[in-house]
Structure formats: structure tokens, C-alpha cells
Amino acid sequence: METKHNQMIMLRGRRLSMAAAGGALVVMGMGQNVLAQSSDPVVRLDAITVEGNRYYEMPSSEETGGYGIDSATVGTKTPATLRDNPQSVSVVTRDAIDDQSLVTLDQLGRHTPGMRVLSNDNGRSSIYARGYEYDEYSIDGLPAPMSSISGSVPSLPAYDRVEIMRGPSGLFNNTSEMGGVVNLVRKRPTDEFQAHVQGNLGTEYQRGAQLDVAGPMNEDGSIRGRVVADHSEHARFVDYNDNKQDDIYAALDIDLGESTTLGLGFLHNSKDIVVNNGQPTDSDGKLLYGSRSDFYGARWNNFDSSSNDWIAELTHSFAGGGVGQLAARYSDREADYNYAFGGSALDSNQELAVAAIGSDIDQEALSVDASYSKPFELFDNVNEFVIGTNFKRYDTDNKSGSVRGLGGSTVTLDELNNLSFVDVLDEAIAGMSGYRYSDTKSSLEETGLYAKLTLRPIQSLALIAGSRASRYKVEETNRVSGESQDRSDTAFIPYAGLVLDFGRDHSLYASYSQVLKPQTSTNADGELLEAREGDQYEFGIKGSYFDGDLNARASAFRLYDENRAATPDIPGANYSVAVGKMRIQGAELEVSGSLTENWDLIAGYTYLDTEVEQASTTRDDGIFLLMPRNQLKVWSQYGFGYGLLHGLRLGGGVTAMSSFSSSSGVEAPGYAVVDAMIGYDFNKNLSAQLNLNNVFDRKYYNRVGGVNTFNMVGAPANAVASLRYDF
Fold first, then answer.
1. Cβ neighbours, 10 Å, residue 472
2. Per DSSP, what are the bridge partners of residue 488?
3. Is the dihedral of CA 293, 297, 302, 307 positive or negative?
4. Where is the TonB-dependent receptor plug domain (predicted)?
């Protein structure tokens, strides 16, 4: 049987032959890695002739197999090796996603070094890095908003890999959060026919099915297509909680000529969830550690959403190695929810108050990007420049109603579960007593010009400089009061970095990056506040081993966040001032990739230290209390390639973190959870896998909130089995 790692080796051979036939050496990123014109390992050479840049067409991780991938596009616009990127970047490959049986991006975040997930229902969680939430995600470099409240956290079946950058990165997208960039790289149509079907079945009512078909659609292969359909039902160990998601993905790649390709993509996601908002605390503000199945909500709780993404990209390769691309993504999302949850801590009679919320959200997003990149020879080394322009506009309509004291003063758990149905939004619109109603329209628009230059004055040193000139406008309209505010500004965003090679396998790096985050809070004159400013300084060492199959990083960083909205210490003040300031610093260690043809590894440790230099709001500053100081995440799998155990795959890992708390004073101890996997490849077509989660049935909370809600219990021991057939 041909293992995934054998397929990877065969692919490398095809890439090398292709480069040799063209009579050109392939370069990428900062021009360090060169594919030699032989079967020798990839090395870093002293002199290079630039004739082409086929490395921009980096292979998919499903082609190469394993966890080892040495390049990414996140934060660079064109592919660069992880070692050559002077920031912290992780890449989670298709095999790593499948081995851990991950379906949504927040599930992936719980297992990825450096990321922290404030759990809710899968597909509705908040994902953080370095203390800040990822409020956007990109598809092939094109951003759109992401938030837990709207359920816009994406599912993963349509994607080949997930690229994650930590820390501010405003060069290609200025108006975003400080946490960094998440880029999802689509599965693409293939030159040859391939297909698989898969079914999943597990404890806690887990089940799912998937179909993935790709290949040429005409005789000469100039038109290629792919279709992915997936249905997933997540574990529901909490009473009445339910979570169903459906995904459809279709793509076409059309060769308009030898050097020009048009790519088209469509993605649809829908969610149907009986919302679980977590548990209250006891009357002393302590976590309950009672039954993990207790559902502190009404049985009619519901969340429905539907999202569509249309993507088009036109790519042309110019003579001399230049690559130009024009790409656009349009997204529309609809979400409505209506649910009741705990409105207080449990009292001495084990009763609590009830709160409820209902909302209707409509969102549209458009992003367009045009860029040109080219390697060039200078100082007897390969250098590179990227220039481009992009535009994005986000429009969000949000009608929301809320109420406290629903169903009387206090109720028992059973009475809460069986609460009479209430349409909270309709009651709020009707002006019912005790209900609050809001109707807002917000928009963000940004246009920018960017440029990045990588110079190699000597072969072992890369100097990187970039800048962005950006114009943004943010508008906020309160349709209830009729008030509207807007703010626009022009910003210049610098970027700088360097990478210094020493020896064959290691590089020292340092970088400075910046980003802005527009705010919707208003000052005493009713005007929107100036944007928050984020600056990050980072340095470290990176290693690349086994021809890029295994990558390692040790990094340290310091991040400043200024102009955060704060309420002044004045009695009766109902406005904000931009004075909040945070300092976040820490260190990360990460190793990921393939140690051998059969052994894969993802391992990382994160240390985070936060300091409120000048307080903003209790809620915003309180987010940092939820970030554990220490996190450790490890996952590894080994596949037996020969002998009596040929075809057997074994995997396992641990997710551990130190204690954390909330601004409400709810504290949770640290925990460690162990997962495991066993798989077997019966032949080249048929394989089976069993994932065991929380093997030792550890009781823990993975998130805490107020005394009334958002104290989320970790899932108990559970298992899910999958059977896959490849055609």
C-alpha cells in the first residue's frame, strides 16, 4: 500500500523533474530555498539564476501528505518558507485535521499551539491568540468578519490547510484585531480524478457523512472541478443541546492559456443549534462540578444561520518570473437566535433568575485584492518585491432584544428547561415591559496600497521592509434613536523584519508589525473614538529540518495596545475616552511536521503575561484574565509502513493549561486532557479510524464567565469512529 508519506516523496520527485526540464531553478519568498536540478536534497545555494517562479504554485498538503509543510502565504501575499517569515506562523495540514477528527475552526484552535478558544457550541466559539480575538478569517488571502455571536466560525471540510499568524499584521489588511491572521486555503480541483466518501458515528450522538470529488472536466484537462458535501452532528452530552452543520463547496479552475488561470469557488454553510450557554455558579460564586449534562436553558433555545461565499481569482505568470493576481470574495450571512439562559447564580434553594436574548443579524462583506510579485537578481542573490492594492467593505444589520427576570423571580432547573416559549425579539420590538431593544447598522470600509521588498545584500541575510497607505471609514447608526456617527482617517502602516541564516538549518529573526482597530464607542460629543493602535516587537530562532518537513520555532514578543475605549471615572458619565493601554508579552516554543516518513508531530508551549497599564472597560480588560499563563499542546501519530503491523496508525496527544478566571471573580483550575487515535488502512482504498477524546474522563471547565452563565464544562470521555473509501 502507498502511504501518504510515500506519496509525498513521489510528488517531490515530480517537482524536481519539472524544474529541471524547464532549465530553471525555482525560488520562493525571500529567495532562500532552491529546488535543485537533481535528486539531491533541497539546499541553500550561493548564486541563483531567476527564470521562473513555479514555487508560487506550492502543492497542497493533501498531495504532500503528513504534517510537514515548509511554506505558507499568510502575512506574505506570496508563498514563503516558515523559516523565512520573521513572525510566528503555524500551518495545520489536511492530514493533521483528519487525524484529530476536527470539523470546525474552533475545534482546531483548541488543539493548536498558541491559540486559546473560549468555548461555546462548535462553530460559535471565540478564538484568541496573544490575548486578542481573531475577528476575521481569510479564504486564500481574502478576509471577511468572524464572530461567535453570528456563528460565522467556519467549518473545515472545504479546506486543504489552515495557516495561522499570531500578532498584529496590518501590511495587507490594516483594520483588523491584534491577534493576527487566520488564512484558510481551499481544496483545489485536481489534474487527475480523485474521490472519497466517509461516514462517522460516535458516542454522545456524534455522526456525519462526507463526499469529496475532484478531477478534470474536459479531455485536455484545461477545466477542472471539485465538489465537497459534508453533514456533521456534534457531540451533545448536555441535555437538549443539539448542533448540526452542513457544508457545500464547489470549485472550478479554468486554464485560459499556458500562463493564465481563472479560479472560481462557492461555499455554503448552515447551522442549526439548540444553544447551550453554560452553567451558573453556586451562591458563593464557585463552579458547580455537578452533572455535566445539566442544561441551563429552555428546550426551545435555537440558533439558525446560513452563509454563502463566492470567490473569483485570475492569476497570470509573466515572463521572467513575475506573478499577477486579481481576486475577490463576496460573503453574505444571515443568523437568527432566540434563547433563554441563567440570569443569576443559584441561590440556597437551587433556583436562579432567567435572562433571554433574541437577535436577527444580516451581514455582507466584499474584499478585492490585486497584486504583482516578482523575484529579481541583485547582489548575486535572489530578492523579491510585492506591490498591490486592496479594498474591503463590511456591512452589518443587527436587531436584538433582551430581557431579565423571564418566567418570574426565580425558577428551578426543570422549570427553566420547560419554560413557555417566548419570541424575545418580537416582544422587544413590541415594547413589552422589561424588554430592551436595539437596532443598529454598522459598516467598515478600507482601501489601501501596499508594498513589500525583500533584499539579500549577502546570501545569509534577508532584509524586509514594507508599508501600507490606508484610508478607512467606519459608520454606526442607531435606528431606534436615529443617531448616526462616522469616522474616517488615513493611516501609514510600516513593517520591518530581518532573517539571518546560520548554518544549514537555523535562522535568527526579528520583526516589527503594526495594525489599527476602529472603534464604535463615542466620546462626550457623540463622535466615534480614534482607532486602537497595536504594535508588536518579536524576535526568535527558527529551524527547518529534513528538507522542510519538520519546522521548529522559539520566539519572544511584546505587544502594545493603545487607545482602548474607557469610561471616565465621572459619576453619570455615559461616554468613553480613548485612554486604555495594555502590554502583552510572552514566549512560544513550537515544533511541527514529520520526523520520519511515518511519524508526525505537533507540539507547542505558550507563556503569556499581560499587564493593564491604563484600564479601559472591565469587560475588555477582563478578557485577559481568561488567558492562561501557560499552555501546552501536543499531538503525534505514527503509521507502521511494513511488517505485521503494516497499515496500523496510532496517535495521541494532550491539551493542558494553567488556571484562569473571569472579571466576575469566577475561577477555574488548570487541567490536562488526553486524546488518542487508532487507525487502520485495509488497502489503498479502504481505511478506518477511531478517535478517543478525554480518554481519562477528566472533569474540567474550559471557560468561565459570570456567576450566571458562560461557565462551559469540558466534554466527557467520548469516541467517534470513521470509515473512508477512496476511489
1. 20
2. 473
3. negative
4. 82-181
- Measured CA to CA, the distance from residue 259 to residue 603 in angstroms comes to 40
Long-range Cβ pairs for the range 429-436 (8 Å, 24+): 429/399, 429/401, 432/403, 434/403, 434/404, 434/405, 435/401, 435/402, 435/403, 436/401, 436/402, 436/403
Q: What is the tens place of the pLDDT at every residue in 431-442? A: 999 999 999 999
Overall size of the chain counted in residues:
727
Bin 487: left if φ > 0, else alpha if -120 < ψ < 50, else beta. beta
Of 277, 282, 226, give the one whose Cα is nearest residue 254: 226
Strand partners, 539: 510, 556
d(Cα 563, Cα 614) in Å, to the nearest integer? 10
pLDDT tens digits, one per residue of 678-688: 999 999 999 99
pLDDT, the chain, mean: 90
Pure H helices in 26-93: 61-64
pTM of the model as a whole: 0.91
Contact criterion met (CB below 8 Å) for 360 and 429: no
C-alpha cell at 239: 441535555
The H or E element spanning position 546 is: none
Q: In what order do the strands lie in the sheet with 115-118?
A: 115-118, 126-129, 132-133
Contact between 514 and 495 under an 8 Å Cβ cutoff? The reply is: yes
- Among 201, 198, 223, smallest CA distance to 211 is for 198
Element (H or E) spanning 19, and its range? helix 4-22
